[in-house]
Amino acid sequence: MSNGRYIVIMADKRLFWQIYTPNGRYISQMAHKSPKPADKQIPPTLPKKEWVLFLFYTAKTFLMVYTYLIEITTERFLPMTKLKESDLYQPIQKHFHKQGYQVNGEVNDCDLTAMKEGELLIVELKLSLNVELLIQATKRQRLTDLVYIAIPKPKRTRSKRWNDVRHLVRRLELGLITVSFTTKTPKLDFVIHPEPFDRKKTMRNSKKKRAALVKEIEGRSADYNVGGSNKTKIMTAYKESCIHIACCLEAYGPMSPKNLAKRGTGDKTPSILQKNYYKWFERVKRGVYQLTDTGRKELQEYPELVSYYSQKIEENQ
Asked: Can you give the pTM of this predicted structure?
């Protein structure tokens, strides 16, 4: 190959493309409604020295292929080599050096240290955020409050897991640096700085979740679930209320929500009957409900609760 890089464009009449960075990371996609010559479809805002590949694709089978030559060195065209922990060192070292720190690598088992005016900062480097890295970092907190962990920037930074990871790092009062290698010059992002964690503030912000948890606990008559179970039906307070209502309708026949609530089915009885989530109930006339055949059949799947509520009904008679 010459001192350039080829861009492969695959397009049909819809001219639908996806854009990727040199190491294959997906960036964005574009589509044009009206067909135009493919050589005029490259976005004018495209930084040619950064992007290397356009892929046009469509559900149709007919494709046209065009090839372009762009002034990019052959080295950038080659696939990126596998990252090593040492690859994280240089961009971080340069950053702190510019900030006036004296930076050293591998000092008494610390991956990177930075000193300025008596302030000690430690950075631990890893290719992924794991328990081992967190253990190392928390051990370094015996030496200084300013401890960072540095990892390559993840592909998905808007996921729930990434938010949970950031919360854990913040909870441990650590700092977090991500390094992006998708451009010619690696870019640093200080996601979190090490600072004291305000646990009381977090609990104040979680009052509604705590109240919902306590309400759910108080709404259960006993422990019918096995902790740690996956892909199994969970007995909730809502379902228990449905079973209680079903047992009352089975014992007393069609009833109104008001009379059911008097027998202890709870304040949510009217809502449960109206929404009828499990299809256990049906309205026989205005304000009166009865148990359906589906309800009777599915009620047999909960013998312990049926026995418990049936006994309560007999005691109240």
From this structure: 0.57
